[in-house]
Design brief:
Length: 73
Amino acid sequence: MNSIPVVLAWSPGLPELILILVIVLLLFGAKKLPDLARGIGQSIKEFKKGTKEDETEVKPEAKPGEEKKTNNQ
């Protein structure tokens, strides 16, 4: 079977991003926009921190001085 890579059919250009920004500005207002951006930034930071903690739980580091034992010893 041939595997076909998934490609995004639509990627926003500059006009689309400006339109989205204007809609967000109209919905939330100029005064709430900095708080909204700050909240999104903190959410991303917590998400990255959580995924990093999960990686350290999955891969426990070996303690110094401990060596892996093999069947040949």
